Each structure stands twice: as C-alpha cells, then as structure tokens.
Amino acid sequence: MERIGFKGLPKETLGQLKPRLKKLHFPSLKVIFVTDHQGRRDRARYRVFLVGGKHALLTEDAFGPAYGEVGERALAELVQLLKKGGAYNFKEAVLPPDVYAALDAMDESAARERLLANANPADPSLYAA
User: Fold this and answer.
1) Dihedral of the CA atoms 128, 85, 17, 103 (nearest 10)?
2) pTM of the model
C-alpha cells in the first residue's frame, strides 16, 4: 500500500494524489473515506483509502472541515475527480480515535483489512458540499 500526502495539508496532499489517480481503473475502484468522527461532519477530518485490485493507496490525514475551508474544498475536488473518472463505489470507515491514530503504525495487511472491514456505503455528495 502506498502512503502519500502531508498531515494537515489538504492542497499539497491533493496535489500529490492527482498524478497517481491517472494510474487507477476508476470503475473498479473502492473509495473509502476514513474518519474518527461520527455524526460531527462539520468537524471531521479524513484520510482517503483507494483500493483497485492489488493496488492500494492511503492518504495522510489531510481532508475535511477539520482543516478549514481549504480542507473541505480539497475533499470536494477529489470527489469530483473520482466521479468524473467513473468511480462509483464510495464508502466511509469510522474508526475509534486510537485505531485511527494507529493506522500509520499498522502493517499494510492489517491496515487494509481493518479499513475494508469497517467500510460502509456512503453517498459521495456528503463530501462534496
């Protein structure tokens, strides 16, 4: 699993992510928005986990309202890019704060398994406000 981005830097993380999106097959892509806040979207922070076959990519914690307007815009722009490319399998994984914080310390297999197991269907319009 490739880990990319910069914690707390939405624009920079999105900039690093964009070239990698060109290598993914969007129709088979699983897009998982990972957060540690449930029911508090106005304060949520997100990482994005993209899984396409054997290839997986996990961003740093850099998207969402917790990072201000720029965090919201970066997340919305990412959703639009994914939808435009043909992605349709959007999910959200809400993790306990301690597990969310431990994602970086987990090995690839454990992180991938945890994220996929906790993912539930999500409406991408929630993230593209």
Assistant:
1) 70
2) 0.92
